[in-house]
Automatic annotation (TrEMBL):
Assigned protein family: Belongs to the class-II pyridoxal-phosphate-dependent aminotransferase family. BioF subfamily.
Official protein name in the record: 8-amino-7-oxononanoate synthase
Source species: Kitasatospora paracochleata
Pathway assigned to this chain's UniProt record: Cofactor biosynthesis; biotin biosynthesis
Presence of the UniProt keyword Acyltransferase in the record: yes
Subunit structure: Homodimer.
Sorted UniProt keywords: Acyltransferase, Biotin biosynthesis, Pyridoxal phosphate, Transferase
Aminotransferase class I/classII large domain residues: 44-384
Known catalytic reactions: 6-carboxyhexanoyl-[ACP] + L-alanine + H(+) = (8S)-8-amino-7-oxononanoate + holo-[ACP] + CO2
Taxonomy of the source species: Bacteria, Bacillati, Actinomycetota, Actinomycetes, Kitasatosporales
EC number(s) reported in the record: 2.3.1.47
Cofactor: pyridoxal 5'-phosphate
Gene Ontology MF term list: 8-amino-7-oxononanoate synthase activity
Pfam family, any one: Aminotran_1_2
Keyword match Membrane: no
Length: 396
């Protein structure tokens, strides 16, 4: 609604935010209230809600590396790395991450979110068309919004549609953007076909490998390596250090000239404090562990397949996992919340995804198939989800 100056409502200071309560009431009526719950350090529940795909967040090699880094380099990075300097620790992580994933170079950011904003804003201009999968993560969507480029939201996992959109463009440049593994159902994007479409139309490809790193590809080298796209001159990947690497932070991986461009132009690099040394240390510790124990990646995929098969056999509507995420459909947001709460009461933590986190509007439980789960824990999880689902599940 547009008001003229004369019509501006006069509001007492204590009523200025009344509209927030009205918005909260609307969310509550739609079953979309979100609340914070405190988590004890020694939470006894079986955790299938986190993104700790390889079960490394508490691994002694990871926590020790975090502590050592903090003791040596301090509690924080002290400023933007362009201002206060870049530590040898950051450079080590960037070099090792790039080599592990098969790219020329890498640049570390304070989060995966910041890495996605950086890639999307720095690699585009007003004469670029961004072709973005309809189910892409919110950080990619926000990056598209910030880019000031034209954005075409392509149908989900539809390379033929991407081809048509690219063929019809009038823009000088184009960037195709997709999650490698979609965070809700755990399905993989058709990356080979998307890359072929991009190549045929002179476009670049940006892959968000948040859910692929550590799980897909040889020894967990990620989706670009799995699809033979790592190191291509027209391909850039983003990753987060906060999922399979059990740390915090993000990175962009790509050709050296892309990384140089990001250092000089990406606002979430220039105007953001560098990643804290402890997080860099933890990520390096996890990366080295993964290099030494590459079977961890395959185990996470195996746990996902087992979980999905058993949940399906129990009559539930489970997704077919391509990586380490399995989801189970609920009939609506309220049912999903109650189902997740009943699981927790029974000793199992599961994710509960509802709109707007689910692009297709279908609420779900989301399970992380942690690679370190034992067979007994997998059996317990399936038993609890099936038993509590008797009153809340959506049946296929
Ligand atoms: C697909 C995807 N991209 C990016 C991010 C953002 O990563 P971070 O949590 O490190 O900011 C996430 C994490 O939630 C994600 O699932």
């Amino acid at each position: 609604m547009v008001h003229t100056a004369a019509q501006q409502p006069t509001l007492a200071p204590d009523t200025v935010f009344d509209w927030l309560d009205e918005a909260a009431d609307l969310r509550a009526a739609a079953g979309l209230t979100r609340t914070l719950r405190s988590r004890p350090a020694d939470d006894p529940v079986l955790d299938l809600a986190s993104n700790d795909y390889l079960g490394l967040v508490h691994h002694p090699a990871v926590t020790r590396a975090a502590a050592d880094a903090a003791l040596r380099w301090g509690g924080g990075a002290t400023g933007s790395r362009l201002v206060t300097g870049t530590t040898a620790l950051h450079t080590e992580l960037e070099d090792e991450l790039a080599a592990f994933c098969g790219f020329e170079a890498a640049l570390v950011f304070a989060s995966g979110y910041a890495a996605n904003l950086a890639a999307l804003t720095a690699l585009t201009d007003p004469d670029t068309l961004i072709v973005s999968d309809a189910y892409n993560h919110a950080s990619l969507i926000d990056g598209c919004r910030l880019s000031r480029s034209d954005v075409h939201r392509a149908p989900h996992a539809d390379p033929a549609a991407v081809r048509r959109i690219l063929a019809e463009r009038t823009h000088r440049r184009a960037l195709v953007v997709s999650d490698s593994v979609f965070s809700v159902d755990g399905n993989a994007a058709p990356l080979a076909e998307l890359s072929a479409a991009a190549q045929d139309h002179g476009a670049a490809l940006l892959i968000d490998d948040a859910h692929g790193l550590g799980v897909l590809g040889p020894g967990g080298a990620g989706a670009p390596a799995a699809f033979g796209l790592a190191g291509r001159p027209d391909t850039v990947a983003t990753v987060t250090l906060s999922k399979s690497l059990g740390s915090q932070g993000g990175a962009v991986l790509g050709p050296r000239r892309v990384i140089r461009h990001l250092v000089e132009t990406a606002r979430t690099f220039i105007f953001d404090t560098g990643l804290a040394p402890a997080a860099v240390g933890a990520a390096l510790g996890a990366l080295r562990l993964l290099r030494a124990e590459p079977e961890r990646a395959e185990r996470a995929r195996e746990v996902a397949r087992t979980l999905a098969d058993r949940l399906t056999a129990a009559g539930l509507h489970a997704s077919t996992p391509d990586a380490a995420v399995v989801s189970v459909r609920a009939p609506g947001p309220d049912a999903a919340v109650r189902w997740a709460a009943d699981c927790r009461t029974a000793g199992l933590a599961v994710g509960c995804f509802r709109p707007p986190s689910v692009p297709d509007g279908i609420s779900r439980l989301r399970l992380t198939a942690r690679g370190d789960l034992t067979d007994t824990q997998i059996a317990d999880a399936v038993r609890i989800i099936a038993a509590t689902g008797a009153s809340h599940a959506d049946r296929p």
